[in-house]
Amino acid sequence: MANYTMGIDIGSTTSKCVILSDGNEIVSASIILGGTGTSGQKTAVNEALANASLSIDAITYTVSTGYGRKSLAFANEDISELSCHTKGVHFLYPDVRTVIDIGGQDAKVIRIGKTGKMTNFVMNDKCAAGTGRFLDVMANILALNITDLESYAAQSKAPVSISNTCTVFAESEVISQLAANAKLSDVIAGICNSVAGRVSSLAKRIGIEEQVFFSGGVALNNGVRLALEKELNTKVLTSPLSQMMGALGAALYAYEKTDKI
Questions:
Q1: Sign of CA dihedral 218, 206, 201, 197
Q2: DSSP 161
Q3: Is residue 129 over pLDDT 80?
């Protein structure tokens, strides 16, 4: 009989859930818009269970992580998102030594040793600049969907410079650039470059060691990924599962706990 464990990453804007079988096979994964303080976490769990044709009673152990990790009443344990991201990335990509994670409200860079343990990290959670929230604000200004930014950035021939480090002032700067007849594609490329520049500054504080992996919701934006590659002068890997690394790591920790039950 399979040993099913669950990891739930309750972020600021989304909730992610991963169910593992015997600690080595992802049998179900879900991501729902709606994070801490919303019904998103419950919906993510129910969707993951339904996709795997399982009931909650079939889950041996559950670990929660992320901003809202303390809010999940039925979780057996909660573990920090730094630890869970490290474990999830190392499980799928054991040669990765640097993780750049950009979520809705923060950005973090994690160094991973050869054994899969976190050796250092740096985090920006004081300001929206360099996060998914920054991109959301900019997309709203431009009356675009967040998913449109990548295709526009790819068309740019001469990205503008968005130099302000404050989201509010950067918003004014973008409006000024548009008023000066800057091309929309060049403005959007400048926005992607701005995010990459801020996060690269974080990464350089602890040093970049290859391979580099990009996780979090912003990792799905190829414009930011390409800008990161230019800033860091190295290839930056990503995956369709980039948003799920925290939940995957939590499910892996949950499996380890079943040995002690």
A1: negative
A2: P
A3: no
